[in-house]
């Protein structure tokens, strides 16, 4: 029976590290699958049930120079965090206390000492301090190189560095060899800092959930670990506290700051029956909340898991770079060998000159900048998206979203609020608006129909007359006796049939229906009022359509609602529509739209799941069903439709960043390739170019974290 376990791996500072570990572990006998996340530092391995595999896996990872600590069987993980992860997530450790930081300091001090010694030592000994400085930094690198070779990876970055630095020592270029090793150590340190920044957003999410909770048990409140909460528990959340688990408010009403989870800056009022997220902040009054999800399944844990899993879904560009680097490094090694051998053997050139140039070329061949160019930008985009409630399940989704040409939007609950509201009240026979609303609300008070609830919301605060007898008439409406008089709320056709709606009143009712509104007629022997209701567009729906068109994307509404209502909403928003669609018909429309280019489908319900799956990119919005969230490629946590163009803008920014990174990496390497072969640049400039490109690429990727903010989603900037 297969066994799956999970470890925490420390010391990974670039995608090449993750690839190296994955390749080395995968070569062990009996291994079925290996998953590794650079962001979460997790290694998950499945093997065929052979005993004693765990020590072999740990030994293989340690031999490559990385730390590893078991977190347990994957099936036994009951929460989103373990003690090992908490230890790894400690912040505030200075760079100079890390292993790579200490190596930089050691080689830097030795290098400075060597330069100082050149003024006092005899010529014959002046190279030796540089040899010591070089070996001090090279030995740890060489160990990792040999471990990688034993694991079947001969063309690692460490192997190229070891060959180049050792060769430089043999041809008497000790000073440059020492400088090269120092710059390589600096580059690795900077990569670690960059990856740490990318992890910060995910660490911050994990830190949002409080460690403890006030659980009510038999009328007594007791403080327990939040990880011990299970569905059904009741917790007390005091003003100023963070909510410890996803749940439903059972008593109390308060303003909730959901910005830590969804990025929504305006506090929302939550009361009995409303859902709340773990990590949100209770601003005003005490709440009693019934837990609906265990710690491992709360919203924040799911966000973290989605971001971690997203690393496995790599963008096509990233997969191409990975394939390219596999033959790129061996090609550089062969080219370096040719540069070393051909000029001396074929043209009688000096060996020392061409060995030096060949070694310089070898350093230029280090693909650090190229390998990190795509995943660094993807990690930044995933991190900043998660902070603003925009979740994307991997680089492939980011790349697909950036190329979207059409956005198909579900109407109900996506473009509209998802619940009807009273939009018009037309009065007859000297009845006031409050009187008409009070009568209608009193009659509808026993009904749970969405239209009835809309009338009751509009009549909130009014004194309702007492109802002596109320009954629903199937397919017609509701009738009741008030003060000895029978009053009915029904559709226009039933009011016409009863003779209560005639002439101008009937014409007005038809006009409201032509606008896509549902009309309820309040009447006794004659019409007293017409009440128009409609599921109105969200406040930001029209602006969303404008922003999509500005981005060059064509919006279209797909809905199962009737033609009249769909036409009215589409007319208000200024977009095309297709109405009265069953789920399978939505699927066919998506397929047809896909023939014109990549399609994004946005929805929030179970009936949207097939279309979400069929679309190039499926996006679940707001508090969409679990089915929609699991089926979709991306999710928008804020109940705000304007985040759809924000998602596209973020994806396009990420892809633009990737193109810049690849250009920087290949451009610098191309320039120094020519200058090195021509003898214009040497070893230390070669490694400076590689390290410089890595730094530039990393800093460019980190720009996504600093320049993208929630204002982009609202303003379209």
Automatic annotation (TrEMBL):
HMA domain mapped to chain residues: 3-69
Molecular function GO labels: ATP binding; ATP hydrolysis activity; cadmium ion transmembrane transporter activity; metal ion binding; P-type zinc transporter activity
**What keywords tag this UniProt record?**
ATP-binding, Cell membrane, Membrane, Metal-binding, Nucleotide-binding, Phosphoprotein, Translocase, Transmembrane, Transmembrane helix
Q: Which residues cross the membrane?
A: 103-121, 127-143, 155-171, 177-195, 327-347, 359-384, 662-687
The terms describing its cellular component in GO are: plasma membrane
Supply the PROSITE patterns for this chain. Answer: ATPASE_E1_E2, HMA_1, HMA_2
**Which residues are in coiled coils?**
none
Q: InterPro entries given for it?
A: ATPase_P-typ_cyto_dom_N, ATPase_P-typ_P_site, ATPase_P-typ_TM_dom_sf, ATPase_P-typ_transduc_dom_A_sf, ATPase_P-type_domA, Cation_Transport_ATPase_IB, HAD-like_sf, HAD_sf
Q: What is its EC number?
A: 7.2.2.12
Compartments where located:
Cell membrane
Give the residue range of the signal peptide.
none
- Please state what class of enzyme this protein is: translocase
* Membrane topology category: Multi-pass membrane protein
The record lists the catalysed reaction(s) as: Zn(2+)(in) + ATP + H2O = Zn(2+)(out) + ADP + phosphate + H(+)
> Can you tell me which family this protein belongs to?
Belongs to the cation transport ATPase (P-type) (TC 3.A.3) family. Type IB subfamily.
Protein name in the entry: P-type Zn(2+) transporter
